[in-house]
Amino acid sequence: xxxxxxxxSLKPGLRSTIFPTSRTITSTAIRMAEGDTGAPxxxxxxxxxxFSKREQADENYYVRQKEMEKLQGLxxxxxxxxKHLEDLDKNVYVLAHE
Length: 98
Known about the structure:
The chain is mainly α. It has helices spanning 2-9, 12-18, 45-48, 50-96.
């Protein structure tokens, strides 16, 4: 209410410089369409789409392969550390019995 009375009291020339009329006001947020961010499609026809199923299967296979590679690397490190611990135990035994 106060703003309206203030605007009405200003001179027309001054009013146009302070409050431009060509400015647009938006009250809604910008929304992205489904899949714009790389998110998988959900529900409806997307579940039955052969391409979507194939793509999901390929992604699962890739992730599984990477996890297997990491697991093999960890198993190898465990074996190396166990061998090192055995060597240290042997050295401690030899030093203790001298």
